[in-house]
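Handout for the seminar on molecular recognition.
Each group receives one record of this type.
Step one: identify the two inputs.
Step two: read the structure output and locate the region that could contact 2-phosphoglycolic acid.
Step three: write two sentences on what you found, then compare them with the reference statements printed after the record.
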Amino acid sequence: MRKAIVAGNWKMNTTLEDAALIIGTLVQLQAPKSDVERVIIPPFPWIVPLQQPVLDGGFMLGAQNCAVEDQGAFTGEVSASMLASFCTYVIAGHSERRHLFGETDDVVRGKLLAILRNGMYPILCVGELLDERDAGQAFEVVDRQLVAALKGSSKESLSELVIAYEPVWAIGTGRAATPDDAQQMAAHIRDTVASLFDIGFAQSIRIQYGGSVNETNAGAILSLPDVDGALVGGASLKAETFSRIIDAVGSRRS
Ligand code: PGA
């Protein structure tokens, strides 16, 4: 059975004091868990000071982004090789990177390769815009993003791949996808991965849903057969709320 994975993407939020407080409270609220990986994805500067409390609390650490290159004259960039001493996971292709910072499918693939090359695990985000969904192109867009990111990589190198389905219209809007839509797309993603590699591999990788996950909808989302976890933005900034979302994994597969 695939192990659940719930990750909190703090984006460009929190002071260092806020961050330490969220972790401290989460660790108090959360009993050790064997059925779910819990990942904290803070802003870059907090990664180093938070590493010890996060790991000591039984959580894992992730990064929100990385450069395509490992080193060089790239002012302002942070490379996967720098993150590798601290992080287990790195997000590639978050829609805010794609749409606010112009990251193309090729750039996302470059980042995915950098993450793999440096021994970390990618959380590859895919998802359609509202216009694309309304035009009936959601599956096509997600397939394009998947194929572009994964082509040329071996399934061995991708063994720890996590794919996050995040419809852009659901991110930060309070309007999550319905469980039916989330399940349909997660199953479709598994089919596409099966066609790129094979069914066994497609069944082994984990797929998260992201976009306005909160403590009210988490139970329904986390019990979907093809959804193995959640990528949580706003609701991961409150320790009590994020803790309840993680605990909703218990309602899964019982
Ligand atoms: P949200 O963000 O939970 O605030 O909608 C999700 C994400 O961007 O990963």
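Reference statements: The domain at 4-253 is CATH 3.20.20.70 (TIM Barrel). The longest helix spans residues 179-196.
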